[in-house]
Design brief:
The chain has three helices and no strands. It is mainly alpha-helical.
Length: 54
């Protein structure tokens, strides 16, 4: 299988615009329950990494 790095270039803007966004409440709940000050975390979940970038 040959991978084309430009295969999804034309759809990237639509994907970013229309994909669902996360609410802030779950993140505040998790950070309040599990404080991670001065700690790095690795997100190994599936998906586009939206939560990791929030």
């Amino acid at each position: 299988m040959i991978s084309d790095p430009q295969a999804f270039t034309s759809t990237a803007a639509c994907y970013a615009r229309y994909r669902p966004h996360y609410l802030n409440a779950p993140f505040f709940l998790l950070t309040g329950r599990f404080p991670l000050a001065d700690v790095r975390a690795l997100d190994l979940g599936c998906g586009p990494g939206t939560a990791a970038l929030s």
